[in-house]
Automatic annotation (TrEMBL):
Annotated source species: Brassica rapa subsp. trilocularis
Domain called Rab3-GAP regulatory subunit N-terminal: residue spans: 28-417
Superkingdom per UniProt: Eukaryota
Phylogenetic placement of the source organism: Eukaryota, Viridiplantae, Streptophyta, Embryophyta, Tracheophyta
Name of the molecule in the record: Rab3-GAP regulatory subunit N-terminal domain-containing protein
A Pfam family recorded for this sequence: RAB3GAP2_N
Amino acid sequence: MAKRIHLTELGCIACEELTELGAGKEGWLVNNPNLLSALDSHSIALAHRFLILIVNWADPDSLRVKIRPDLSPIEAESITAIEWLVFDDVRVLLAGTSCGYLLVYSIAGDLIHKQLVHPSRILKLRVRGTKKDLMQETSSEEISIVLPGIIARFDGSNIQSMLQKWFQEKNSNFWDQKSKKGDPEDTGSLHQRLPYQIWNVNKNGVCVDATITGIMPPPLLEHQSSQRYYCAVTIGEDAVISAYRLSEDRGRSLVGAILSKVVPAAASTIASFSKLIWRSNDQSPKRKPEAKTQSFARASSLTCIKDYPRKGEKLTLSPSGTLAAITDSLGRILLLDTQALVVVRLWKGYRDASCVFMEMLAKKDKGKSVYHTEPVKSDYCLCLAIHAPRKGIIEVWQMRTGPRLLTIQCAKGSKLLQPAYRFGSNSSSSPYIPLEVFLLNGDSGQVSMLNRSLS
């Protein structure tokens, strides 16, 4: 009987440039908490504090791109989160900093956009979307940004419009000889401020990770409201799991309304009074005006689970947003139904584990005829891939309560990665693209894909 192969080798990222990120040392990919990674369909981005490296793993001879963001040395600013953003044929890289700035770069390393979200460390960048179908009444594409106790949301259409405008201007300027010697950062999109919503979600304790699971119904007394409400799930040290209802309206928050009026007035009064006492020297260099932060919208707590000394560590959301896999400090993995807000499954003995959702081809009955050659969405079943580094294995479990489908041995120092959500993909005319999972071997640099079929 032939041995089943569950991994398909696709490419390699080994190159000299990786030494600047610590490559060559044992466990360099997984042991360094400051080393960040984000996977695209053919490229991988690796970041370490002040440097971002883009490597095309499908073409080892392609040019590597190094990006060194202009960070503040006074604030000891560094890169704390990265993620790919894909709109059909347009690919850009998102980066978050320790000072709360969102940076958008082209694959050539050009800075497209820079915006202050909130003066705090950006922990996570999430790109996701849901399509309108029989299960989803509305469609939504968004970029959510997680900070300690805070979550922000950018609408995908606003960022797409900004990117289209930037690329149009760049292509037109390419043929304009007068603009060749201009400032590369003198573009309208760089200084354009994108609209977004931001919420304070630290009522049950500061969160270490969070996600917006989707649109939820309004409260009972607000059925006639035209605004949208979102559900957010957070994890942290004080509360393992917390859930919030997020409102788009900022005016209904009494505390926020008071602070938005009182704080600026008090700050202006103090500043005017200080100028009367300490006259500044006219010859001193003028500082750039600080970017204004946005006031919080209303966030209402729905539920929380506190179980000291258990602490939430990592959070992974399913494509539809109805399930979330949460790892904790006790080596357990909790499967949360984000609509009912109940834990529906529990795994034990998985310390330092990481989880990603994937789709695998379901087994067909032998007597059942198949009329299509290309698999469609209904042929796939949702699964959870669990990487247990202490055991050196990857397990794939069928959702929600299905069995373990397979176990894969993996090398020490490997990392599970998943390509970012592609905006505008999976149209009715194009073949269905299932949710795939890749494995990066840090020692060899080999990139492999978990096979979608069990056979």
